[in-house]
Every structure is written in C-alpha cells, then in structure tokens.
Amino acid sequence: MPSAVTVIRNARTVVAHDAAAGGHAYLENADVAFDGTGFLHVGGRYEGPFGQEIPGRDRMVLPGLVNVHCHSGEEPVSKSLFEDQGTAALWGQAMYEYSSLIEISDDAVKAALTVMLGDLLRSGVTTFVDIAGPHDCWLPTLAESGARAYVAPGFREAAWHVEGSHRLDFRWDAARGREAFARALETVDAAEAHSSGRLGGIVAPAQVETCSPELLQEAAEAARSRKVPITIHAAQTMAEHEELLRRHGLTALQYLESLGLLGPDLILGHCIFIDSHGWTRQRTADDLGRLAASGTSVAHCPVTFARSGMVLQSVGRYRRSGVNVALGTDSYSFNMLEEMRTALINARIAAGSVFDVSTADILDVATLAGAKALGRSDIGRIEKGAKADFSLVDLNHPGMRPVHDPLRNLLHCAAERAVAAVYVDGACVMQNDRPTRVDYDGALAELQAVQDFAVRRLQVNDPRGRPLAALAPLSLPVLRHP
C-alpha cells in the first residue's frame, strides 16, 4: 500500500551497494524509498506514492550492520569487573578462571538481553547472532525488539576448571551435554518457525575442545539437515590450541577438517591462534588455506581479546588469503562501531602497516561478510529488493563535522553518538539513542541490582575463596573521609 511507503528525500550520502563492483559506494543527494518488504528505490528522485517523508539533507543512510557473534546471558553483568585480570599461566586470558564466577538468576536474563539489544541497536546493528543458554524469554524479547536475530543456543559436554590459577582442566558430563544438545535443537526449530519472520536459528556446539568428536559431527549433521548455519568457538585461545595439540596433535582447523566440519555454513568464533600465529609453536602456514578453500567464515571480535593483549594476525592477511572475515562484538560494550574501529587499528598494528586494511574493508567486514556468513544476500546492503535494514547518521553531530568522508568520521570519531535512528524491515527500532520497542532504561536499572548480587557472590563461587578485592579490584584505591 502506498501509505506504508517511506521516502528519505535527498539524502546527502547513501552508502549504496554497487553490484558491479561487489561492494559499497557513496551515492550523493539521493532518494531512498522503502516499506516493510524492503528497499523500493535507491537513486534519483523517487516519484512514486508514499505515506511518510524523511528529510535527508543532513543524513547519511548506512546499511544495517551484521554482528555474527555476541553473548547475552551473564556477559552484560561482567562490565567493569575483570578488565585488568588474567591468568598468567594461561597466556593472560581471563575467561577460564573468571567468567565462571558470575552468577545470574533466570529472572535477570531478560534485563541482560534487553541491555545487549539496546546497545547493539544504538550502534547500528540490525542483524545479530546471540550465543547463549536457551531461556523462556529469549525468542519473545528478540521478537518484541524488532531486530533481526539468530539464536545460537550453546551446548557442551565439558566444563572448564582452573586448578590453582595454573592449570586448565576439563570436567566431562556427556549426558548433560546431550540433554543440552536436544534442547538447543528445539530452540533452533522454534526460532526458524517464529511468526515474526525476523528470527533464525544456528546450531552452536560451544567450544571445539569442550565437545567430543561425535557430538561435533552430530551437531553439524543436525545443522545441515535443517539448512541452518553452525558456529563454534575455535582457535580462540592458546590454552585451547595447546589442548588440541595434546589430544590430537592437530590445530583447531586441522581437527575440524578431519571431522568434516569445515564449510561455507560454518562460522568460527575468533579463529586467532592458527598455525601461523606468532604465539604458536607451529612453523607452518596452512590453516588460512584450509579456511579459504572450505569457505568457512571467521567471526572476528577484536575488543574483548585486545583487553588481554591478543590480536588476530591480521584481518588484511586473512582477507587477502580469501577468508571471509565477518565481525562480532562478543561481550560488552556491544558497540559495533567501536568494534569496527578496533578491528581496523589492531589489524594495522598486527601487520605493521597502515595499508593492511582500509575503512572500506572494515565496512565490508561488518556488513557484506556477515551476510555471507549467514548465507544471505538480502541484508548488509542498500539496494532495491534488499531488506530495509539501515541507520540514519546525523551529519550535523559535532563528531561528524567537518565532513569530508562521512564513513571515516563515523568510525574514527563519532561512533554511535551520531546514529540518529535505526530501521529493520522498514520499521524504526531505535531513535534518540534508545530502542523504541523494549524498556532499555528499566533493564539498565534492573541490571545494576543484578551485578550487585553477582559481585557479592564472587568469593562464594571462586574455588579458591579469594575475596572481592583480589578477584575484581577497583581501578583506584578508595579514600576514607577525614
């Protein structure tokens, strides 16, 4: 119906899809028309009927960002606790020893999910993959938000245990892992069948080292029979890399290849410590070829690993090898634009060259590569027929002025502060720095109480019984009033 059509009139800049070049390009002083079915017009003046007009003179129309790896659950509660922590004997990685200390009740899960949703939308994300434990409010909250989301309910047979801050052990419970696998498939099927049309499912064995070979293969078979993607954390830490060498004499990529898991429907979380990484013992450089030849995608999440002094070596090298590198936020701050900036800077540092990746490359990683990883050609781009998922960026924001190249200003200076509105399927889901369909501020208030409870439980949950001051020390000492 014409009344459902919206036109952005004379947008100063549209980051449009150039089909001939297979990438994005600037389109200046253009009209964009859309409705709930997708983009109807991208280019010169739109002369068709419409119901609403948005002035575009001071706006950049940016394709919706595609986040292929993030975690709700307890991750939003971890903010400001362990950023300065790490286990020295595990290459400084904090995840194994500290993440298991966070306790969150089932009642608090919705607040954590809502905060993550709000933060993603505020930074221009329109599609994301949430890897978490299944819960009753998961699909309803995602659908209510208006976002395009893929649920990836995690399952595994082994839990991590750090003994005395010096050794990573694995505590296996195959029966529990199988139960979690069955429930995960039920959740995936429910997401795929959801009436909103914006939800999907991904089969997600949690980590390559916490699942048996049989479970990994059965998970891949279940995903492929359903024609949904698979995602696995792999090559994400040196502890995992060394464990797989101890068990099988193989890198994560060699191991997954031997099991028949590599392929264009597989998204590997992080994939940092491959055979050619400078920290590993290998003196080969074969893993990038395995990734490229199989079409396997990488979910690159630079911020959380940079906190521990770890970088992928490098985004440009992976891309030049033919690997599809997509982007995720993993944990807080769930800010995709900051993630893009960090990805660009870290790549240049890792490569020792400003020429390793460009701003355009990073936009591709955050849009088209993510869409490819999910097997889609209708998101992450602005062109006629694609889904109407996009952001409106305020070119009058102080962080965007003066404007020579608006995309560089957005990534290097303004970030989410200049994102004025976000649309999914042609509907506004974020405006004035707040999601429009979920109670973000209420969830933030609730999450403070949730974190206060989690902090009180840290010492109880720590196998060594260390006090709060040792587990999550404040950045600065607290002075007493005279």
Layout: helices, strands, pairs:
Blueprint: E1 6-18, E2 23-35, E3 38-43, E4 52-55, E5 59-63, E6 65-70, H1 95-98, H2 109-122, E7 125-132, H3 138-145, E8 148-155, E9 158-163, E10 167-172, H4 174-192, E11 199-201, E12 204-205, H5 213-226, E13 230-234, H6 238-248, H7 252-258, E14 266-270, H8 287-294, E15 297-300, H9 302-306, H10 315-320, E16 324-327, H11 336-351, H12 359-366, H13 368-373, E17 390-394, H14 406-414, E18 419-424, E19 427-431, E20 434-435, H15 440-456, H16 458-461, H17 468-471
Parallel strand pairs: 1-4, 1-5, 6-7, 7-8, 8-11, 8-12, 13-14, 14-15, 15-16
Antiparallel strand pairs: 1-2, 2-3, 5-17, 9-10, 17-18, 18-19, 19-20
Notes on the protein architecture:
Helix content is 33%, strand content 24%. The protein is built from 17 helices and 20 strands. Strands 1, 2, 3, 4, 5, 17, 18, 19 and 20 form a 9-stranded mixed beta sheet that branches. Strands 6, 7, 8, 11 and 12 form a 5-stranded parallel beta sheet that branches. It has a 4-stranded parallel beta sheet with strand order 13-14-15-16. The longest helix is centred in the middle third of the chain and has 19 residues, at 174-192. The chain is globular.
